[in-house]
């Protein structure tokens, strides 16, 4: 039941039969293939996502810490589906609730999916993988309703950087990927065999970019408060390549599923950073703090 609902939202809010009426250029085959027009708000919107996030030009923000409830719970009944546009996880045992930060409401996790390569870039750098944890504002009964309001949805974006070290949490997802890769199994959910806790997919949440944007798939509803974490997790390219093998048509693999960058259009992008007094030993003198501040402002932290 949940899966049908989510496919509808992820696609076009139309009918399942339309699931593949929109798609991505196959950049592995032709780097110059233009990005297709998806129509509606995707083409006309002024608060679209993803965007390039950059330290220079961001506003400095300070908020209460983000609060996470049940993200550490090991999921027993997590389902995975190849919806032709991504790999999506849902079916959480209990409500996973996000609050705090600049958020005025409680948000619950609806689904998790990934993009290969990343949709957001940080300081013009694209990462090999981006995980989206999609949350719905609990004042709205479902995602369709939430997508109509600018405070309807929060997506946490987690970027992964290339490493020689396999990522265990991503590895748990990959273990069940074989069952959903083929076109025949598209839109047929399978159980995620390994026990996974959602916070295994989330690095430090003390530092992040936040801005008002949109879903990155049709309908491109401008209902999303984005929280893109600045800390990244390692993943191997072999692991990312496993996702590239999922089929969206008979014999056609989804080599990439990231949307092209959108115009920032003078939107405020806020950079929330770990308070400096927590980044070093207690008893730092004011002058040492000042030096630390200058180093951070110099952007060293983001030359990844
Ligand atoms: C979402 O909620 C609204 C209002 O309760 C309802 O009319 C609509 O049918 C629901 N949509 C889905 C897809 O469940
Ligand atoms: Zn996404």
UniProtKB/TrEMBL annotation:
EC code(s) of this entry: 4.2.1.1
Keyword tags: Lyase, Metal-binding, Signal, Zinc
Domain Alpha-carbonic anhydrase positions: 20-273
GO MF terms, alphabetically ordered: carbonate dehydratase activity; zinc ion binding
Record-linked InterPro entries: CA_dom (IPR001148), CA_dom_sf (IPR036398), Carbonic_anhydrase_a-class (IPR023561), Carbonic_anhydrase_a-class_CS (IPR018338)
The keyword Lyase is annotated on this UniProt entry: yes
Signal peptide: 1-19
Catalytic reactions on record: hydrogencarbonate + H(+) = CO2 + H2O
Keyword Mitochondrion included in the entry's annotation: no
Sequence similarity: Belongs to the alpha-carbonic anhydrase family.
Purpose: Reversible hydration of carbon dioxide.
Protein name stated in the entry: Carbonic anhydrase
Organism: Drosophila kikkawai (Fruit fly)
Gene label: LOC108084308
């Amino acid at each position: 039941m949940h899966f049908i609902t989510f496919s509808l939202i992820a696609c076009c809010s139309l009918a399942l039969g339309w699931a593949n009426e929109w798609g991505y250029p196959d950049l592995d085959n032709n780097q110059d293939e233009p990005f297709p027009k998806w129509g509606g708000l995707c083409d006309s919107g002024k608060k679209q996502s993803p965007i390039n996030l950059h330290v220079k030009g961001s506003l400095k923000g300070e908020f209460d810490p983000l609060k996470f409830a049940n993200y550490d719970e090991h999921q027993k009944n997590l389902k995975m589906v190849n919806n032709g546009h991504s790999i999506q996880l849902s079916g959480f045992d209990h409500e996973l609730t996000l609050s705090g930060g600049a958020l005025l409401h409680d948000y619950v996790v609806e689904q998790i999916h990934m993009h290969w390569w990343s949709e957001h870039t940080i300081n013009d750098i694209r990462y090999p993988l981006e995980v989206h944890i999609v949350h719905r504002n609990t004042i709205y009964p479902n995602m369709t309703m939430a997508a109509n309001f600018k405070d309807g949805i929060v997506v946490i974006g987690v970027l992964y950087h290339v490493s020689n070290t396999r990522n265990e949490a991503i590895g748990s997802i990959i273990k069940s990927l074989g069952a959903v890769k083929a076109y025949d199994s598209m839109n047929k959910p399978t159980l995620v065999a390994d026990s996974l806790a959602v916070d295994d997919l989330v690095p430090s949440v003390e530092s992040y970019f936040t801005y008002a944007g949109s879903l990155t798939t049709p309908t491109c509803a401008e209902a999303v408060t984005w929280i893109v974490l600045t800390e990244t997790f390692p993943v191997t390219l072999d692991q990312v390549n496993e996702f590239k093998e999922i089929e969206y048509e008979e014999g056609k693999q989804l080599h990439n599923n990231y949307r092209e960058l959108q115009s920032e259009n003078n939107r405020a992008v806020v950079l929330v950073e770990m308070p400096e007094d927590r980044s070093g030993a207690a008893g730092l003198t004011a002058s040492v703090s000042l030096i630390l501040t200058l180093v951070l402002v110099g952007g060293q932290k983001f030359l990844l």
